[in-house]
Amino acid sequence: RFSNVPGQPSLLARDSNLQQTMGSLEGPSFLDVLIMNTHYGCGRKCKQRITCKNGGFVNSRDCSKCKCPPGFTGDFCQREDYGSMPSCGGVLLAEEQEKELYFTTTPGKTCNYHIKAPMGRKISVVLKSVKGRCEHGCGRDRVEFKVDVDPRPIGYRFCCPEEGSRRFSSSSSSLPILLTSTISSSSARLLYRL
């Protein structure tokens, strides 16, 4: 029997920071598409073998290019994608001293930052505030932190003001942060350090 208690989620993520990754109605994720392409052998039609970076896979509609996970771009997913918002996005270096980042986007735009640390070091983050369309799954307006070593899965997503004051760390020396606005403006304020 299916449980439905008003105001309570039907499923709870083991990691509470992943709660908003469930139930998004934006369509298949990058991993969903990769799994389907692998299952149906879409890449086998490509005679030329190419190497995709950052978790990308061969684009079976154009065998000379790769399909890239969110946050990466280029024919072989070799470059960071800074998003579509002018004068927003880039690479930031984490240091021992805490730094603050505040960024915002307008509807239909994205802004991506890639925080980097020295090899073997991890990045600590405190999410201070987030503004966006507050909805289950954070499918339209959100900030997403790709904390895993593998950039393909959906990361920690937040879109509701009450989700501020979260603490977490990256699993590697790189942390892509993706701010997406579909319907309303989105913003995020965070602190980061080694």
UniProtKB/TrEMBL annotation:
Keyword terms: Disulfide bond, EGF-like domain, Hydrolase, Metal-binding, Metalloprotease, Protease, Zinc
Domain CUB as annotated: residue spans: 88-194
Gene Ontology BP terms: proteolysis
InterPro entries with a match to the protein in the record: CUB_dom (IPR000859), EGF (IPR000742), MetalloPept_cat_dom_sf (IPR024079), Peptidase_M12A (IPR001506), Sperma_CUB_dom_sf (IPR035914)
GO molecular-function term, one example from the UniProt record: metal ion binding
UniProt-listed Pfam families: CUB
Bilayer-spanning residue ranges: none
Keyword Translocase: no
Positions in coiled-coil regions: none
Domain Peptidase M12A: 1-43
Full protein name: EGF-like domain-containing protein
